[in-house]
Amino acid sequence: MNRDDEFDLDSGEGRAPAPAEPAWLGPKASEDEIVTRSRSGRGLSMRAVLPSAITAAALCSGLTGIRFAVDGIWHMSLFAIIFAGVLDGMDGRIARLLKAQSRFGAELDSLADSLSFGMAPALILFMWSLQDLPRIGWFASLAFAITCALRLARFNARIDLEDQPHKSAGFLTGVPAPVGAGLAFLPMYLWLATGEAIFRSPWLVGVWTFVVAFLMISNLATLSWKSMRPPESLKIAAIAIGAIVIAAMLIEPWWTLILVCAVYLALVPVGMVRYARVRRHRHARGEPVTPQPE
């Protein structure tokens, strides 16, 4: 029975419809997407099952990565986290395509992201390298998992705010959780690609884990996918590069991931410079130029 069709058995009269519940949000595919709301707050519909099932599959994939790490199958643990990232990029888009946004899906998505891209990478890195420094290594793993959770909480807390200078200019605040997980595994990519023991050093891995944790929780303006718009003349070239990257992932996955990480890290200062230009323009027009406090 619909909420609007509820019937009072005592009086025999229809009840007044309950007020619509606020902020019914769909699972986010990325933080730079405009979040839309469903027109009613009537709970989880059948159309919401598919995107939520994909989100649950991403969660299962992230946790399976831990299981592979326990068995020492490091390449499979990495593939499990990468597959979780692919699924995370699908659920929100499918929810919007089906108009199946729900608060349930949004909450499930945040929980899945925290586990798949925060806790799972932290545990995998600890079992792979950081356990050789039990205290400092565990502290680095905790820092990564906590900063990932705090980042997601910050995003959820600000999702309904209109005053978001970074997002309104087409930028993200800090490094997204799935990207942060991918960057954290850079020493493991190098170790698998070269076989050099230096990349498994707990000191190196620990310092790098702290760096990535800082990037995730930082207030730096980073480029979003939507802000990367190649000129029309390079459209065919961009499609060809995308196809080549996918083919390279199948042939040489570790070197390809190393290259992707290097390109992303090189784009971090580019995003900072571009947003500084936006700040100057906004300041000249008297508009807000910094994010409001959380």
Explain what the structure shows.
By secondary structure, this protein is mainly alpha-helical. It has a single domain (18-285), classed as Four Helix Bundle (Hemerythrin (Met), subunit A), CATH 1.20.120. The protein has 10 helices and 2 strands. It has helices at 49-70, 74-97, 103-128, 134-158, 165-168, 177-184, 186-194, 202-217, 235-251, 253-285, and strands at residues 171-173, 221-223. The chain has a two-stranded antiparallel sheet with strand order 1-2. Helix 3 (103-128) runs antiparallel to helix 4 (134-158), helix 3 (103-128) packs parallel to helix 6 (177-184) and helix 6 packs antiparallel against helix 8 (202-217). It is globular, with a radius of gyration of 22 Å.
Number of helical segments with 4 or more residues: 10
Span of the ends, CA to CA:
40 Å
Described by strand count, sense and barrel closure, the largest sheet is: 2 strands, antiparallel
CATH fold node name: Four Helix Bundle (Hemerythrin (Met), subunit A)
Helix fraction by DSSP (H/I, runs of at least 4) = 55-70%
**How many domains make up the coordinates?**
1
What is the 3D form? globular
CATH superfamily: CDP-alcohol phosphotransferase transmembrane (TM) domain
- How many strands in all? 2
Structural class of the secondary structure composition?
mainly alpha
Order of helices and strands: HHHHHEHHHEHH
Transmembrane segments: 48-66, 136-157, 169-191, 203-222, 234-251, 257-276
GO biological process, one term: phospholipid biosynthetic process
Keywords: Membrane, Transferase, Transmembrane, Transmembrane helix
Biased composition (Acidic residues): 1-11
